[in-house]
Amino acid sequence: MKTSDQEGISEGSALICTERYGSNRTQRYLEGTDGSLVCERHPTEHGYRSLRDFFVSLLLPHGYPDSVSKDYLAYQLWDTIQAFSSSVTGSLATQSLLRGSGVGDSTATVAAATITWILKDGTGMVGRILFAWMKGSRLDCDAKRWRLFADLLNDIAIFMEIMAPVFPSFFILTVCAAGVCKCIVGVAGGATRAAITVHQAKRDNMADVCAKDGSQETLVNLAGLLVSLFLVPLVSDSMMTTYLLFFLLTSLHLYANYRAVRSVIMETLNQSRLSIVLHHYLKEGKILDPEAANLQEPLLPGLGSQVSVSLGAPLNCLVSRSVAFASLFLSDCFSTLLI
Predict the structure, then answer these.
(1) Which residues contact 12 (CB under 8 A, 6 or more apart)?
(2) Pairwise CA distance, residues 90 & 88, whole Å
(3) Which domain holds residue 172?
């Protein structure tokens, strides 16, 4: 086999195939004039083709787009928007918490602020454990719904932190409640993100998909931090401006979250999707494809039908008196002995 800098290649050479390695290496194989196989290497084989290729290799999983699900890009774009909005509103909440803890107040003590923070973290840890115990087994099958629930609860927690200094008598109680909400968000959001990552990883590359998602989130949070550095000082003296900014960013955050989870096309059946598929089949005689079933799946918490399946019957439904139970038991024992 010859390379492109050797003889045997002309303008009329037939292209046989193109080989791509990741996003930064391309080689073309052509048929030379003498019938030999000629390898034509891309001029930038030893470097990145462009700035776009650099960011693709930096932020996207290896082998993208073939190594991930078809809904990967849509989900990540909307997830980036919601993460940026949440980062800025989180900075507004941090400013309110520091103000309520006594930063800038000469009468405040370090001990009081420390106790407030310890209580906030402690109640949050208890809430994290209780939520994982009560709802942990349900996060896999309803990953999209719980993902949306986690982000909604996160906005509620941020709102509580922003409003905490307005009611100084209930500051500790409000901060602790917000801490519990944020810890629940950590459990629900982290667990459902792992379930979505399993869905996105199509080549046993879950670790790579998870690592690149972390890089994307870090970059977005860095951008949010830079914006907050310029934005927070402008609104620090005006609570009305803070509330207005929070409302606008939260609206964007919720909309982006809804679009993100709605774009996910799960290829497995949970209770909601199975109910949708069965109802459509019994009504139309056709089986819905995964995309249509996912688009009809209810995502808002509390919506959707709940199905309870019971197998068998308890003993008290069969007999109501002890005499009947004794006769039933003795007849079964007698039948067993005869056999």
Answers:
(1) 33
(2) 5
(3) 72-263
Does 251 map to a domain? Answer: yes
Within 10 A of 109 (CB to CB), how many other CB atoms are there?
Answer: 10
Considering the domain architecture, whether residues 17 and 81 belong to the same structural domain is answered as no
Residues 249 and 142 in one domain: yes
Q: Which of 66-70, 100-104, 136-140, 218-222 has the lowest mean pLDDT?
A: 100-104
Instruction: Give the pLDDT confidence of 183-212 residue by residue, as tens digits.
Output: 999 999 999 999 999 999 999 899 999 999
**Contact yes or no for 260/254 (Cβ under 8 A):** no
Same domain, 172 and 203: yes
What is the token pair recorded at 90?
């989180």
* Cβ proximity of 145 and 301 under 8 Å: yes
Could you tell me the pTM of the whole model? 0.77
Residue pLDDT, tens place only, 37-67: 777 776 554 455 567 777 888 899 988 888 9
Cβ atoms of residues 31 and 16 within 8 Å? yes
> Does residue 304 form part of some domain?
no
